[in-house]
Amino acid sequence: MTDYNPRAYPPAAVTVDLALLTIRDQQLCVLLIRRSGAPFQGQWALPGGFVRPGEDLPQAARRELAEETGLADTGGHLEQLASYGAPDRDPRMRVVTVAYLALLPGLPAPVAGSDAAAARWAIADEMLADPALLAFDHHAILRDAVERARAKLEYTPLATAFCSAEFTIAELRRVYETVWGVPLDPRNFH
Question: How far apart are CA 188 and CA 169, in angstroms?
Answer without folding.
Answer: 12
